[in-house]
Every structure is written in C-alpha cells, then in structure tokens.
Amino acid sequence: MLKVKVEIVGANCLWIYTDDGVYLQSYNTIIAYHPHKGQIILDAKKWDASVTTSKHRNHFLNETKKDTERKIKDGIYLLTDLN
User: CB 3.0-4.6 Å disulfide test: which of 1, 6, 60, 71 passes with 24?
Assistant: First the structure.
C-alpha cells in the first residue's frame, strides 16, 4: 500500500511525502521531486516560475537560486516535465 503524507509548509506550498521520495508543490504545480535514491528532479518549465515558487524551491532544496542553476548546469539536478 502506498503511503502519502502531505505537509503544509506555507501559503500555497505543500511537501508531499511518498514511499519513494518527497515532492514540492507550489500552488497547483509540482516543482521538484527529491527521491530517496537518485537525482533531484525539477520541472523544466516551472522550477523558476515566480518569486513565490522560487522561495518555496529554495526552502525545499535548502539553497539559493544560484546554487540550483549551477547544479542544473553540472548535471546534478535533472530537468523534466513533472506535470
């Protein structure tokens, strides 16, 4: 049975815990997925969609936008369609 826990982290921000990892949802959009094993995945179109989404992402990843951009460039994070 799949176990899911949803944590309200802030206004319009959810962290969704599953057996496989944690999702960041900002408003109605999945922004990032942090699997228990493997690379962090960001939504290619929405990972930097707004100031609010950026704040949620920075908190989720515990880093700045500059750090995130470097990790995308270095292939540490993957970009894909999460929606």
Answer: 60
Question: For residues 74 and 83, what is the distance between their CA atoms, to the nearest angstrom?
Answer: 24
The span from the CA of 73 to the CA of 71, in Å, is: 5
Answer whether 4's CB lies under 8 Å from 17's CB. yes
Report the alpha-carbon distance of residue 35 to residue 56 in Å, rounded: 18
User: pTM of whole model > 0.90?
Assistant: yes
**Span 11-38, pLDDT tens digits:** 899 999 999 999 999 999 999 999 999 9
Per the DSSP assignment, residues forming a β-bridge with 78 are 41
Separation of alpha carbons 14 and 59, rounded Å: 12
Parent domain of 46 = 5-80
- Which spans in 29-83 are helix H? 51-61, 65-73
